[in-house]
Automatic annotation (TrEMBL), chains A, B:
A GO term for molecular function: flavin adenine dinucleotide binding
Domain Acetyl-CoA dehydrogenase-like C-terminal as annotated: residue spans: 469-591
Family indicated by similarity: Belongs to the acyl-CoA dehydrogenase family.
Domain Acyl-CoA oxidase/dehydrogenase middle, residue spans: 163-272
Annotated protein name in UniProt: 3-methylmercaptopropionyl-CoA dehydrogenase
Entry-linked SUPFAM superfamilies: Acyl-CoA dehydrogenase C-terminal domain-like (SSF47203), Acyl-CoA dehydrogenase NM domain-like (SSF56645)
Pfam families attached to this UniProt entry: Acyl-CoA_dh_1, Acyl-CoA_dh_C, Acyl-CoA_dh_M, Acyl-CoA_dh_N
Domain Acyl-CoA dehydrogenase/oxidase C-terminal: residue ranges: 283-452
Protein species of origin: Simiduia aestuariiviva
Catalysed reaction, written as an equation: 3-(methylsulfanyl)propanoyl-CoA + oxidized [electron-transfer flavoprotein] + H(+) = 3-(methylsulfanyl)acryloyl-CoA + reduced [electron-transfer flavoprotein]
EC number annotated for this UniProt entry: 1.3.99.41
InterPro entries: Acyl-CoA_dh-like_C_dom, Acyl-CoA_Oxase/DH_mid-dom, Acyl-CoA_Oxase/DH_mid-dom_sf, AcylCo_DH-like_C, AcylCo_DH/oxidase_C, AcylCoA_DH/ox_N, AcylCoA_DH/ox_N_sf, AcylCoA_DH/oxidase_NM_dom_sf
Amino acid sequence: MADYQAPLRDMRFVLNEVFEVDQLWASIPRLAEAVDVDTADAILEEAGKIAAGSLAPLNREADEAGCQWQDGEVSTPEGFKEVYQLLAEGGWMGLGGNPEYGGMGMPKMLVAQFEEMMQAACMAFGLSPMLNAGACVSLDYHASEALKQKYLPNMYAGTWAGAMDLTEPHAGTDLGIIRTKAEPNDDGSYNVTGTKIFITWGEHDMAENIIHLVLAKLPDAPAGPKGISLFLVPKILVNDDGSLGERNAVTCGSIEKKMGIKASATCVMNFDGAKGWLVGELNKGLACMFTMMNYERVGVGIQGLGAAEASYQSAVAYAKERLQSRSPAGKVQPEKAADPIIVHPDVRRMLMIQRAYNEAGRAFSTYAARWLDISKYSDDDAQRTKAENMVALLTPVVKAFITDKALESAIHGQQVFGGHGYIREWGQEQLVRDIRITQIYEGTNGIQAMDLMGRKTVMNGGEFVREYIAEIEAFIAENKSTAAAEFAMALSDQLANLQQVTDAVIAKATAGNKHAIGAAAVDYLHLFGFVSYAYMWAKMAAVAGAKLDGPDADFYSAKLTTARFFYQRLLPQTRALSEQILAGGDSMMALADHQF
Amino acid sequence: MADYQAPLRDMRFVLNEVFEVDQLWASIPRLAEAVDVDTADAILEEAGKIAAGSLAPLNREADEAGCQWQDGEVSTPEGFKEVYQLLAEGGWMGLGGNPEYGGMGMPKMLVAQFEEMMQAACMAFGLSPMLNAGACVSLDYHASEALKQKYLPNMYAGTWAGAMDLTEPHAGTDLGIIRTKAEPNDDGSYNVTGTKIFITWGEHDMAENIIHLVLAKLPDAPAGPKGISLFLVPKILVNDDGSLGERNAVTCGSIEKKMGIKASATCVMNFDGAKGWLVGELNKGLACMFTMMNYERVGVGIQGLGAAEASYQSAVAYAKERLQSRSPAGKVQPEKAADPIIVHPDVRRMLMIQRAYNEAGRAFSTYAARWLDISKYSDDDAQRTKAENMVALLTPVVKAFITDKALESAIHGQQVFGGHGYIREWGQEQLVRDIRITQIYEGTNGIQAMDLMGRKTVMNGGEFVREYIAEIEAFIAENKSTAAAEFAMALSDQLANLQQVTDAVIAKATAGNKHAIGAAAVDYLHLFGFVSYAYMWAKMAAVAGAKLDGPDADFYSAKLTTARFFYQRLLPQTRALSEQILAGGDSMMALADHQF
């Protein structure tokens, strides 16, 4: 397997050239204070060194070794503790954190690149900083000042690690039916009792303490989702002076055997009257949780992207080295027994698909991060509202479309290796196994699609979609004489089609067809994702096309070529998706249960 | 995980109702002698019992245990030896074998169903009877009478097991560059020396002897594929009286760690001057090997199908049991905390996709087996030639399209389980890991696509494709008033489109575009596969539609509904594929190697 290298050139292209972060950051005072392009560049450089030099070399062995559970303790694979320590000491655990409590205050656009590197180097490990950051966001937004002061500094410092505890054996998607109970104590704390499953890094040996954010219900809480509250439950109780006190009644009962991300611990967590503190308001736990979830969902999209990038890098290296058969156009390396397989059109097809999806995914998640930053940091109310709408609309697409395409990308990367791709030592099969979870957790991709189609589209009469389309139309109008002009007509057609399909589903759903949203959802999310990637490729082409005569011409011409490949060989899938959506759900719903 | 049950009702539907095997078998003397519908039925019944009762229960544990290598010996997971013995004693290892040498002489259409059951129950194990059958076919067609008499009876009896040894570390797809040498001895035997890798069941403890079919080159052989010969190399030498003699110089150096089919041994085989005997003519080894490979390729398609069927059965059972959220149309089981997830449109979508692909795959592989039977058993020269053309055309599609759709099906099955699908104990993730190899071995799916597009289509000017289309057009003309009429117009459009795309690629390739075949191949194979599945669904609908008022109405109406689902929600993908193919390969080939 080729050594992973952080794709710094591509990251800088997206940040500095496509999205011109210098202008954005300078225009928002709180960001102008925290970061500039030079600082960002130094951060990228340093993160790339840690990812490639310290973390990536652990990935293969860690998958074989896995985490080990014994008597409630979880020990991590060799090297994990050291890299965790390295990240903690470098301040990386609080990279996007609130500076008031010790965070570094970096914008999500930059943090996204750091996350991609961590996930590319080792997804099982990368879950740890990702979950910690998500837990911190939730605390920062919703916890009391006292809780924030007590917990955030150590979590940003990585001394303590965050975990989120939502799922129960009978309740995953449907959190309304959870059974974990929180009973109030006189001192304002709660006793939390129940069993949570699938708790990633719920227990481990990398940090001094683990801070669980736990969904539970008060004894007299209303039934369903409106009776859920969020509690902070530390593994080890924290004294008033900040020192560690007694062990709390939180234990890890076992860890799961999984398809992939084997080096991460997926824990069954038992709370036996564990002491916890309310985060946010009573019975508003789902809202607090969703602050964290939306953050994580963008993170999960980036996970898929990172692993797909690692897959691409290995596949390219293998395709250039592996000699097998001759080019259909005649011998390319006549002195050798065969040509490198990169000469074969079908191998190129697979590599080009990886490029087309991965690079669009990087641009798209960075674009979503841009809206996250504006919604968080802008002083302009109207701009913030617009940004919030876009975050709401794009989050499920970032999570689900990037991960669906990441799996496809990694399957192609594995296929490039032929039989060697199926053997563990080459690492390609691990990437497929690892990526597969990203389509499932933090809300399955089907749930993301329901969110996009239902809450984010039908429920507001398609307003957010129209806003998004208007932005892309404005882009097209502005690029009549750039290299994006080549793609303008196709993109314009795609927008018209997206609008038409959106209207058709809204009409059906509002006319009382109860299954209209569910029957359309996943295909609609893919349609939306393809259009979004087409927008990203047009944006990248516009920038690259202006620099074809400059010093880095090979880099820019590759962007234009990959844009063409995307438009010609992948984007036509929107035709099929549209037709499928418009066909409706009758054939999907017609069978009686007993006919299955 | 639900217990696997052989889908006997569906198999009988395909055999007896869709393809009316009674008429076919009665019309071909050698088949009429060997089998009738009642015999076939009894065989299906008994095979189903072994698959569900004896083999399937081993599958999960065997995956965890894997095969163990020590000092050249491979021990198999618990229970494998016993099931192997059960199959051997029941004559199953020679089910399709030549009766002159002790085989049971059953047609491939029936054997295909047996194979599906074995693969569904445990793919890692199922490779053993499959490879044995393939090796026997190769010997039966190409070996000398003496070799056949000496080896086939024990191989059909399962006392000895067959293996095929083709790949070398530097030579997979490109067998022309193999280095294994065969030096002639005075007694007519050869000394075979070299290293083979990825040899499935190359060594194990289930049979007394292992008969390797090994590709090697004579010292003075022509370079490239025209210098390859095939040799029979037994693990233990066989005396003239048929008893076992000395150990041959064949050893298993190690076994691979793999993504899936972990309970099968994938061996590195070392031949150190091992004694072997020529099979077929010198330097015609590839032809002998392809007899076996074509047989195996249909078998690999059926592997994918079998595992996808197992995935579907589990997913349906889980979807009916798992309670989570409420139907969008209102509570279905108000007395419970939530509704079973099968009420949700997106869960149904996934299950319907599994049905649509799996059932079409079963019909399609049986249809290909029908042509294999006619090509092998018919006395009519013209019919045999037609059948050989169809076998040549359809084999790569059966191998690659069924396995590609099987992976998709199993991924959907896993997705139905949410987080539980990622945990090993439920078995769904194993099916995904296992199926993944079917897209890679016996010629990657990309190689299958090159075979279909190049050798089977462009090289004969599209003759086979026209023959196939003509058959489907005749079917449409005959079904103007059956339930297939509903699909006639769509199917007709698909045929016209397939013809047009075929002509366009042929025109481009014959005009000298060296990359035209490779650039179109995989998308073309998928286009061809979708049209073939549409044909199968129309055939199934024609039969089912006539029986909607009979005793098994639920069964037949489900067929019609699933056909509609396929036409409305999956078949539109041909639009995208066609557009992609017609866009050509320029953007695919434009990057210089260093730009990757």
